[in-house]
Write a structure and sequence with these properties.
Largest sheet: none
Structural class: mainly alpha
Helix content: over 70%
Length: 349
């Protein structure tokens, strides 16, 4: 009711003075705050009808179009702003975002560079350039831009996370940890940063530090599926399969339609020679993702452990039909067949 009253009040002001674009702007901005993009877009377009050169409304329309993946329309509106005010960095920055999204590296780069030449003090432009170069695998250039963004805004945790991700990819785990820690200091409620920090500790086999971070991430978001699964993996690496099993079962309860926790749980059960239990879980995964040849191979392998070669052959053939060029599956099948033949031959001697 409160929302309806505010909207009615703003609309009344528009009716009273229909040429005052500030009333329209206030209403549109309120709709944005309510995440009502349809009505916000409609009001911004009315502002343009009254004042075609209203730069902020043109940018807002372009931004809404970008958010809705209406990229051609977004480009059109941002270019309108450039025709009105070519010294405004914002339309170039936004055009860079559009072209980056549609994977046009050259146009994204040229627009970001233009935005930077107009206003070199905007950290978001350097962050965007970092993302752009990271996407094409130029990690050194990406790090350079993220560090420039940090110089302009040392309180934005996202740039530290981006640098940490690069360091982790390069195998520089100590450097990754330093940057993840900084991100967590700046934003203690960032469960994703805590998860990344935990995974870095786990990769260094610092399992106590890793589990402390996993627990903090889960405390922040008890439904954080990846945190439960990654914590389980770390316990496995630390030779604590029982703790891992409990975590994986909880992850399955959180999201029974994701396959990862099932697969990891079944793999642990196979290692414990609990083949029937593992088989049931693999088959559950197969029902979720029926076109995955690796899962069919896991099922076949488990049937081999159960000495049920007829079912093993059946599932290996299904796997090879889905992935005819997968030499690993073929090799496993051949090894299984040779082992089966050798066993039979021994029995005939």
């Amino acid at each position: 009711m409160f929302r309806e009253n505010i909207i009615a009040e703003l609309k009344a002001k528009i009716e009273k003075n229909p040429s005052d674009i500030e009333n329209y702007r206030n209403l549109a901005n309120y709709y944005i705050g309510c995440e009502d993009l349809n009505n916000a877009l409609s009001i911004y377009k009315k502002i343009i009808e009254i004042e075609p050169l209203d730069v902020q409304s043109l940018i807002n329309i372009g931004s809404i179009c970008f958010y809705r993946k209406m990229y051609a329309e977004a480009i059109e509106y941002f270019n309108k702003v450039i025709k009105i005010d070519e010294k405004n960095y914002a339309p170039y920055y936004n055009l860079g975002n559009v072209y980056a999204e549609i994977e046009n590296f050259e146009l994204a780069l040229s627009n970001y560079e233009k935005a930077k030449s107009i206003n070199s003090e905007k950290p978001e432009v350097y962050s965007a350039l970092g993302y752009l170069f990271q996407d094409i695998g130029n990690l050194d250039e990406a790090k350079k831009y993220y560090n420039q963004a940090i110089k302009l805004d040392c309180l934005n945790s996202e740039n530290y996370i981006n640098i940490a991700n690069i360091e982790q990819k390069l195998g520089n785990l100590e450097e990754a940890i330093i940057n993840y820690q900084r991100a967590c200091e700046l934003n203690p409620n960032d469960a994703k940063a805590l998860l990344c920090l935990a995974n870095s500790y786990a990769a260094l086999k610092e399992f106590k530090c890793a589990q402390d971070c996993f627990k903090k991430a889960i405390e922040l978001d008890s439904s954080y599926y990846s945190a439960w699964v990654c914590s389980a993996i770390a316990y496995c690496d630390d030779n604590d399969s029982q703790e891992a099993i409990g975590l994986l079962k909880h992850a399955i309860e959180i999201d029974p339609n994701k396959p990862n926790a099932y697969i990891l749980l079944a793999n642990i059960l196979v290692e414990q020679k609990r083949y029937e239990e593992a088989l049931n879980i693999y088959k559950t995964v197969h029902n979720i993702v029926s076109d995955n040849p690796k899962i069919l191979t896991f099922i076949a392998n488990t049937y081999v452990f159960l000495n049920n070669y007829t079912q093993a052959v059946k599932y290996y053939k299904k796997a090879m039909k889905l992935a005819p060029k997968d030499n690993e599956i073929k090799l496993i099948y051949i090894e299984m067949a040779n082992s089966y033949i050798n066993d039979k031959m021994k029995g005939l001697k």
